[in-house]
User: Fold these one by one.
Assistant:
Number 1:
Amino acid sequence: MSDKAEPPETEPAPDRRAAERTRVLLAGVLAAALAALAASREWTSTTTTGHAGITATTGQSGTDLAAWALPCALAGGAAFLAMLATGNRARRILGVVAALAGLAAALAGVLHLGSGAWPVTLAAAGLALAAAGAATTARAGRWPSSADRYDGGPAGGDAIAEDPVSLWNALDSGRDPSSPNITASAQEKGRS
């Protein structure tokens, strides 16, 4: 045994960028879902007694008190879901949309902070949605695009043979088997 500590294995840069993209997009979708949930819940309730002594309780939801909160949360969530199928330029634009929607939802929560826990939840989720949108706008240019995994392999890669194993390995590694090239990792996977 040697006394030297081995350096930790690090992910290749494209894998780190893809992981970052996944984390930010997931955070945006979850924040939008939480904001939508908070906006649709009952924020206040009032009990009144009528002339005949009958009491009635009426509640007001977030959509009653701040009508724009739920549409903003849904717009932010839709922007993040659309980012799953778009390129980096469109992601930047959708990031701005999500950030603005998150700020508007957060404002709805802040304006009604005294109405219970749901407005506080909405404000926090709206801020998280805005932060995820801003992070997307700032970082999307560095992320791999959705189509990158279907591009051909590196120059000098071996052509796909009629070998069914090579075709399946190309599919397993996320490559288009109809492309003229497959990566060496796909070929190695078939040999193991």
Number 2:
Amino acid sequence: MTAGPLVKETKLQSSSVYHILDSLIEKGIISFETKNKRKYFYAVSPDRLLDFIEEKKRKVEEEWRQIENALPALTALKTSARKPEQEILIFEGWNGILSAFKEAYTQLKPGTIAYAYTITKEFGGADPEQVRWLINKVRLLRENLNKRLKQKITLKIIAEKDSDIGKDQAKTGFTQVRFIEKHYTNPAVTNIYGDVTVVALWLQRPIAFYIISKEAAQSFKNNFELLWEISK
């Protein structure tokens, strides 16, 4: 068919349809011919989709090898860099915040305790499914870390009463969960990992403050201990 029926069928702007058609032609997924000064577009054999995925797979594997080869040098550079005693970094977006947690877990020593408070039932504009996705990713991160460690990392959590996420976390190994009434909660979730504190705000576009400070971490830990005593 020509581009006109495609615009009508997809309900996209004509410029977008032409852009997509050009991209599909370049990938070899569709072809075209010109009749009476009009372009007619044709789908090629569906087998071409498998060829296209195979090509993407090859490129990803090549990028994987390049990064894998560069990792030792990059890790050495990061290790040799002088770490500041105090620093605040900002991470945005779901993958950005996941990176903040991954970085925080590298700071934990075997056998230490991490802390998180307060996990609420409601979130400040964030999609609850996205929040659960992130928390499950972090939980898997902790579980995989503990599989490699003889001295396990323990996590203490304070969650709002009747929080489903809190109840789920209570089923995880090396995790202790207590619950607290709503009027003690706040929209920010504070996570303490050694001298690193990650304060996450569950907004529509979430943001996390990654704080490197021994004094700040101790202060947040003191607040945690106060709430822990009155939690159930």
